[in-house]
């Protein structure tokens, strides 16, 4: 921590000078999450907070689609990222042209798009969702069939929770798809009383073995309510690191899959972003206007 302190002090004073607010996803490391971040949370909470932000500058500590969502919701604000190369395997798995072809193949079927997508893809969609509200949003549409993009595992999980028929795309999160059901069984063998929480971006055999499935924020709420003695969080590494500070009485076993994109965000890069007012995230205004409808429709549903 000593090594981080000069960066943290410098960032906090630059934030005031620039009238900036820092939004950090739950997968950001503790030295960012617990120090310079003004607002933290899951993808849904970050979108909600961006929509309400009063500062002139939003510095997004997360990946590119999160910064684009902030820009879509706040076109008049300057949205910065410490590193524009922080992408996402889900966002990369599908293009706007892919969505147009799907819509031509299934005319009239609403497109429900996970926020882990580009602004171009959102612009082709009827409504967005996050892992916190996907089932709720699919059901709220009052239809018997939806196209669900792009995460096949989240889509399969949604399909298992609803009567609505779900047409899937072949996208996957490179972090969550690496977990296996056998890995979870080995944690149970090693620690009989362990409570296993898994993110719905994991494959079905993993979700079947888990005691609880939910978004990163839902996992935190679950821990608050249940207060288990020992926990495994089947998700990105930083989650357990961040959450263990809040729950010192819980023992966290840490199976760890790192998101290389989230790791691109570092204190020196945050500092330089505020110092040089870089790297600005732009979204074509015509695309942003169409994408905003899909995101705002999701925000109207809530969690
Ligand atoms: P949530 O925080 O919405 O659960 O998203 C998980 C994720 O993989 C974000 O990149
Ligand atoms: Fe994308 Fe997965 Fe990384 Fe989240 S954890 S940003 S879904 S690659």
Automatic annotation (TrEMBL):
Gene3D superfamilies: NadA-like
UniProt keywords, alphabetically: 4Fe-4S, Cytoplasm, Iron, Iron-sulfur, Metal-binding, Pyridine nucleotide biosynthesis, Transferase
Domain of life according to the entry: Bacteria
GO cellular component: cytosol
PANTHER family (UniProt xref): QUINOLINATE SYNTHASE, CHLOROPLASTIC (PTHR30573:SF0), QUINOLINATE SYNTHETASE A (PTHR30573)
Stated family: Belongs to the quinolinate synthase family. Type 2 subfamily.
Protein name: Quinolinate synthase
């Amino acid at each position: 921590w000593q090594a981080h302190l000069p960066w943290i002090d410098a960032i906090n004073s630059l934030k005031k000078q620039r009238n900036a607010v820092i939004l950090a996803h739950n997968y950001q490391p503790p030295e960012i999450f617990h120090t310079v971040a003004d607002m933290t949370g899951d993808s849904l909470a970050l979108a909600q907070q961006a929509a309400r932000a009063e500062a002139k500058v939003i510095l997004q500590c997360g990946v590119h689609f999160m910064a684009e969502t902030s820009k879509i919701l706040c076109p008049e604000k300057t949205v910065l990222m410490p590193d524009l190369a922080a992408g996402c395997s889900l966002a990369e798995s599908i293009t706007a042209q892919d969505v147009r072809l799907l819509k031509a193949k299934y005319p009239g079927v609403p497109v429900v798009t996970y926020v882990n997508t580009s602004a171009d893809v959102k612009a082709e969609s009827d409504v967005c969702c996050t892992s916190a509200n996907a089932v709720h949003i699919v059901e709220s549409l009052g239809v018997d069939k939806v196209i669900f993009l792009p995460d096949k595992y989240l889509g399969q999980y949604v399909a298992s929770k609803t009567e609505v028929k779900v047409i899937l795309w072949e996208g996957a999160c490179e972090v969550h798809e690496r977990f296996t059901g056998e890995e979870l069984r080995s944690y149970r063998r090693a620690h009989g009383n362990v409570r296993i929480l898994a993110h719905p971006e994991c494959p079905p055999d993993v979700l079947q073995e888990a005691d609880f499935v939910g978004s990163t924020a839902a996992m935190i709420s679950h821990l608050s309510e249940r207060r288990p003695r020992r926990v495994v969080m089947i998700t990105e590494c930083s989650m357990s690191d961040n959450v263990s500070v809040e729950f010192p009485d819980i023992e966290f076993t840490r199976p760890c899959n790192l998101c290389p994109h989230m790791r691109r965000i570092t204190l020196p890069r945050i500092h330089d972003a505020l110092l040089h007012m870089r790297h600005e995230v732009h979204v074509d205004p015509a695309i942003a206007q169409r994408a905003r409808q899909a995101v705002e429709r999701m925000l109207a549903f809530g969690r």
